[in-house]
Predict the 3D structure of the following.
Amino acid sequence: MTNDLDGWRGQINELDRQLLKTLEARFRVVEKIAEYKKEHGLPVRDEQRETELIAMLARETSLSPEFLRELYSAIFAYSYLIEQ
């Protein structure tokens, strides 16, 4: 049983590393968006985009919409820090 548990934890560790790399890539794109928005005088926050993104993701996953909103609330908050 411990071997199974260790194996699953190893899988979780690898998936967490992949998640972090994906988030880092996402935030690099956010930096580019921030530059574009500054150059074109656009607001940092786009609530319609947020709503559309969460709705699109909710259609593509079995994760609960509440979880997606909470997760993306944190992602959006960090994105706004980058954009400011």
